[in-house]
């Protein structure tokens, strides 16, 4: 069965990845409706051997669609996702607009695909760092019972968007040429630097991004009492996030047992042979479906604890790929057609 599919924010970095993944994964598309801002309306894109004209994203643009993937930011999602749902178009939303709404499923298909049947027209995609971290944590939780974890993220500039990726490239070129380095996307130079500042700060000193790891992790894994603390850092990497995790479990755990649990999980692969310099790195996790987990070792601070390192493509598992995997799972469950 083929579907009428809308993509909101089709001209952005995630929108472009959605197009490429729909094609490479042979998702059955009967009609593509590319949607963007008024300034992009009238332009064309190529998909499936056809030329499609970009339309302005308005409430009426969702008429007749089976589903739409939103990747245009929270304000657009808040304004248009309910309008799309009213018109019978299922929304898979990449923004943070609906993630913590109790009536909206927050889904990582490898973890909680069973909640898709409860959707009321809108389904939320998790934050990129949360999705990638859980690819390492969830199989360990299933085996040993996750009690709490501490995370530090190393987030690529792709998480900010195409303009940030271009800014990093331009800053490196300027530095090499001995020219002045300009910063427009970030408050400081990102090339050869680290910014311990992702998203806006809250009154308690955490950022919104850091709190997403706790709140979204609780919802996705159905662990309302889960304890977590997180520090999010932007790093001068173009693409793919990395996360350092220290986790405590209810049951005794060993690195060997952890590797086995992760290797049996569909969302991750073990890359863990430090003696031969084998460990996940963002350079090698661009455009990869599975996230990589390595540096798995006994945590010296917890009795039943592990330290581990997870890498994953922010534009794929952290955004576009997860959204398409949701659509694929809904297709399998027969949830996409009206």
Structural features, described:
The structure is a single chain. The chain has 338 residues and is α/β, with parallel strands linked by helices. The chain has two domains: 3-126 and 319-332, 3-Layer(aba) Sandwich (Rossmann fold); 129-313, Dihydrodipicolinate Reductase, domain 2 (2-Layer Sandwich), CATH 3.30.360.10. It contains eight helices and 14 strands. The chain has helices at residues 13-24, 74-86, 109-112, 128-144, 162-177, 208-221, 255-263, 316-332; strands at residues 3-8, 29-36, 44-47, 50-53, 55-56, 67-70, 90-93, 122-124, 146-155, 227-234, 241-249, 268-270, 291-298, 305-312. The strands form three sheets. The chain has a six-stranded parallel β-sheet with strand order 5-2-1-6-7-8, sandwiched between helices. A six-stranded mixed β-sheet has the order 10-9-11-14-13-12. Strand 7 (90-93), helix 3 and strand 8 form a beta-alpha-beta unit. The two termini are 12 Å apart. The relative contact order is 0.16.
């Amino acid at each position: 069965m083929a579907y009428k599919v809308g993509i909101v924010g089709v001209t952005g970095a995630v929108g472009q990845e959605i197009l490429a993944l729909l094609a490479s994964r042979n998702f059955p598309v009967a009609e593509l409706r590319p949607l963007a801002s008024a300034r992009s309306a009238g332009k064309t894109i190529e998909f499936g051997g056809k030329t499609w004209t970009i339309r302005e994203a308005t409430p009426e643009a969702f008429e007749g669609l089976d589903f739409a993937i939103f990747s245009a930011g929270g304000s657009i999602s808040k304004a248009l996702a309910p309008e799309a749902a009213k018109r019978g178009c299922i929304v898979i939303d990449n923004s943070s607009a609906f993630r913590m709404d109790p009536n909206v499923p927050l889904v990582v298909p490898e973890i909680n695909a069973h909640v898709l049947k409860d959707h009321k027209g809108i389904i939320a995609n998790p934050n990129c760092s949360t999705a990638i971290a859980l690819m390492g944590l969830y199989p360990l939780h299933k085996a040993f019972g996750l009690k709490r974890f501490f995370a530090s993220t190393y987030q690529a500039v792709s998480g900010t968007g195409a303009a940030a990726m271009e800014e990093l490239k331009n800053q490196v070129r300027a530095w090499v040429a001995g020219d002045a380095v300009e910063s427009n996307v970030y408050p400081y130079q990102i090339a050869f630097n680290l910014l311990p500042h992702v998203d806006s700060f809250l009154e308690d000193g955490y950022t919104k991004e850091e709190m997403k790891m706790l709140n979204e992790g609780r919802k996705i894994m159905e662990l309302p009492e889960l304890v977590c603390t997180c520090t999010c850092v932007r790093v001068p990497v173009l693409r793919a996030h990395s996360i350092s995790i220290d986790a405590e479990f209810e049951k005794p755990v060993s690195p060997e047992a952890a590797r086995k649990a992760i290797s049996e999980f569909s969302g991750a692969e073990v890359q863990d042979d430090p003696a031969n310099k084998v460990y996940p790195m963002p350079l090698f996790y661009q455009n990869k479906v599975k996230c990589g987990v390595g540096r798995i070792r006994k945590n010296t601070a917890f009795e039943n604890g592990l330290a581990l390192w997870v890498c994953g493509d922010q534009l794929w598992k952290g955004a576009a790929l997860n959204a398409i995997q949701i659509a694929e799972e809904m297709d399998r469950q027969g949830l996409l057609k009206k």
